[in-house]
Amino acid sequence: MVFSSFTFLFRFLPCFLVVYMVCPAKWKNLVLFAGSLAFYFYGVRKTPMYLILFLISLLLNWYLGAWMVQAADEKHRKQRLFAGVLFNLCPLMVFKYSGFFTGRGLLLPLGISFYTFQMIGWLVDLYRREIRVFPSFLHFGTWASMWPHMSSGPILRWKDTETDLGARRVTASDVEEALRELTIGLVMKVLLANQLSGLWQKVGTIGYESISTPFAWLGLIAFTFQIYFDFYGYSLMAVGLGRLLGFHLPENFHYPYMACSMTEFWRRWHMTLGSWFRDYVYIPLGGSRCSRWKLLRNLLVVWLLTGIWHGAGWNFLLWGGCLFVMIAAEKFLYLKILNRYPWLGHLYMMILIPLSWLPFAVAEIRNIVVYLERLFPFFNAPGAYTWYAGDYLKYGQMYVWPLLAGLIFITPWPRKIYEKYKGSLISAVVLLMLFWFSIYCIHMGQDDPFLYFSF
């Protein structure tokens, strides 16, 4: 169920909130668990067996956790952890990656990449004894299936919501703050991401071979903005919806396009995924406190896994490999220079960020090559490319306002201004107007599924 849809905003959400708010505190986890399963069932209603798969995952992970906690010694704890990790990875491998080898992909169960990593993190935290009190199945199921983050994250750890699961209280200020964040996220998605997606679609419609160099850059910048506002908008809505239920979900973005290096960028983008790989893969491999060759190995493993996690395709392997090269080069060669001269870092990232999204935007390797030839025409034979054409003028004029808005809203300044005046009546009026304008755009059909639903 898409957050930016009439079904969610005017049916599921109000109906669920009425039941959730009026029920006694001791029943809230049960209501949330049941509502999350209903939310999941709606998302997989065309393949209802996926709900059974999800329930089996919940039950077995809870039992696997209890089984590991009861192990007699460290050897048995490790064996049971290995069995649990393998159990979680097998369905992900079958559904997400079988098509890579057979050529016939399966329809992905909703949120499988996210809940698989969440379950593995749960088992590892139990193994490390970071979870002191083993929870009831109701608490565990509520945490694992909570509908605000189920589809596309953020990836939760047990510690993120342990306190809120035990006792929570929603105040009037919480409701106000939640609705504000929900509205801002909706605006990011509908009024920015969806509008900018139109420009990127124009590039595909015309054909990569037929676009000019300026238009190739304009289209890639549009996609760069689109993927940010799409996923950032979803994350803001998820955090706002969590707050509405009494939970404090972790921040997932922190102005990544303001980073001065690719290393810093990935500390700011999809932060719950980055911290998951850091804590459960990178540091256990040795992190950065090792020899240079081992550090290179650790970085290679993390970034190839990051690429594979996002999708089963050569483009995602290429994407992960490119990120490895960029970040390794920074660590060993010039990261200190970028940190010392932020202006240089920003110029560097202005080129690198759009280029890093190219394998994400264009799936086929041969088309990536074609697009690179359009971006950098001087690598081609003279006459084999177009420096100037009317395409970028035509479509640049059509999308000038979404592009300018995107350029402004990737910075922290709009949020700083909002925080300064958010207690005023005018901010409430502006948000209300933006909310209903977003609803109008959805009604007019200007809406798309969130990009990260496909991962």
TrEMBL record:
The chain crosses the membrane at residues 6-23, 51-69, 81-100, 106-124, 215-234, 347-372, 392-413, 425-445. One of its GO terms (cellular component) is plasma membrane. GO terms for biological process: alginic acid biosynthetic process. Its main location: membrane. It comes from the Bacteria. It is a multi-pass membrane protein. The keyword Hydrolase does not apply. It is found in: Cell membrane. It holds the Pfam family MBOAT. The keyword Magnesium does not apply. GO terms for molecular function: acyltransferase activity. Keywords: Acyltransferase, Cell membrane, Membrane, Transferase, Transmembrane, Transmembrane helix. Belongs to the membrane-bound acyltransferase family. This is MBOAT family protein. It comes from Hominiventricola filiformis.
